[in-house]
Amino acid sequence: MGGDIVPGTDPYVPGHGDAAYGVDHYDLALTYRPSSNQLRGEARLAVTTRRETDRLRVDLHHLAVRGVTVEGAALARDAHKGGHLSVVLRERVPAGTVLTVTVRYAGTPRTIRARHLGDAGWEELEDGVIVASQPHGAPSWFPCNDRVDDKATYAVSFTAPAGYVVAFSGETRCAKRRGASVTWQFDQTHPMAPYLATIQLGRYVETRLATGAAGTTPITVLHPAGLDRDAFAASFGRQPEMMRCFGELFGAYPFDGYRTVVTDDPLEIPLESQSLSTFGRNHCSAEWEEVRLVAHELAHQWFGNAVTVRSWRDIWLHEGFACYAEWLWSEASGLSTADEWAAHHHARLAGLPQDLVLGDPGPELMFDDRVYKRGALTLHALRRTVGDDAFFGVLSSWVREHAGGSVTTADFVGHAERVTGSELAGLLAAWIDAPELPPLP
Ligand SMILES: [Zn+2]
């Protein structure tokens, strides 16, 4: 019927997102009961149609829709099936039509499984919750247009039992207790892709880190009581220095504050959300293999969160850059230099199969370690070719010009050429488009 829906247009996350509209703002009012993992809520999506259409497809998995209303056009009917809420209008509306779609929903949220990508989304902990949505988990907890390039602002109200601390990927405005519950109010005023939205809930204490003379960005850590003091000081405690270092190299921190959540449960891998990153207790360690991840997730605030890919094939624009930031922090903190890391990882990659194309690794390899390391090596090759001043000029102006927006690899190559005034397409193509590992310049 109709054949009107433009399906999700990103082959890395098939079945997610609808190109017929964009969401400008999400207003979420949620209530959560941790003892039974029951979530209910109302989501108001401020929507603008991108093309003429009489239907919108909203992503929402595992949760039951209780009611849908539309302001700005007459609703004909709605149907929720297979993770897709179809909102059908009585008449076609032109591109540029502003609508408000309100969805009431409830249920037991859980992760979404995708072929090649594993599980992502709302995840219960021993006594709490994390949401780790990259790349396809956002519809596990709120109705959304789950496209990496559909950024919106957010206001969230979240009611949970007293005794838990709740965090969102944005600023906490207030927490008001009423009886046995606390309602937390959050917002994110900088455009955010759905996968970067998160809720974190646990029995945490908060540590505020001194931001020092150069920085005014508040940096806080939510963590279980009783973490090892020395390990904390050597890892999360160094974030103000890391932020100062990255601020000098990449430009000012792009959001209002930065928060890390350290769960009591061990986590296999940490994950970035917008203005917030999630780690496990196991990452609180002075070992470089853990400290580098603290730097990595912080660097994603510039590369991945402020400046976000238009489609997932360009994931190296997130992971290669964040990996390179690890090497930069290593050098800045008196450990191995970026040159030494580059030589080390180049030699390692040279011994691995040369069957990955950095600029389009495919969904099954999008988080392959070679994307991270070869992406970082690509940046190092660029740096060696154009020199430090030009290189860091490329990175900082990249963030300045594209923060809040979506980018492609071609955008980056064009940007690097423009800023440096050099012909770089040939050099970068060898690193990005061909499977063979080029020599480091
Ligand atoms: Zn990363």
From TrEMBL:
Keywords: Cytoplasm, Hydrolase, Metal-binding, Metalloprotease, Protease, Zinc. Residues 243-431 form the Peptidase M1 membrane alanine aminopeptidase domain. It catalyses: Release of an N-terminal amino acid, Xaa-|-Yaa- from a peptide, amide or arylamide. Xaa is preferably Ala, but may be most amino acids including Pro (slow action). When a terminal hydrophobic residue is followed by a prolyl residue, the two may be released as an intact Xaa-Pro dipeptide. It is found in: Cytoplasm. Its cofactor is Zn(2+). Gene3D superfamilies: Neutral Protease Domain 2, tricorn interacting facor f3 domain. One of its GO terms (molecular function) is metallopeptidase activity. One of its GO terms (biological process) is proteolysis. The active site is at E297 (proton acceptor), Y372 (proton donor). Binds 1 zinc ion per subunit. Belongs to the peptidase M1 family. This is Aminopeptidase N.
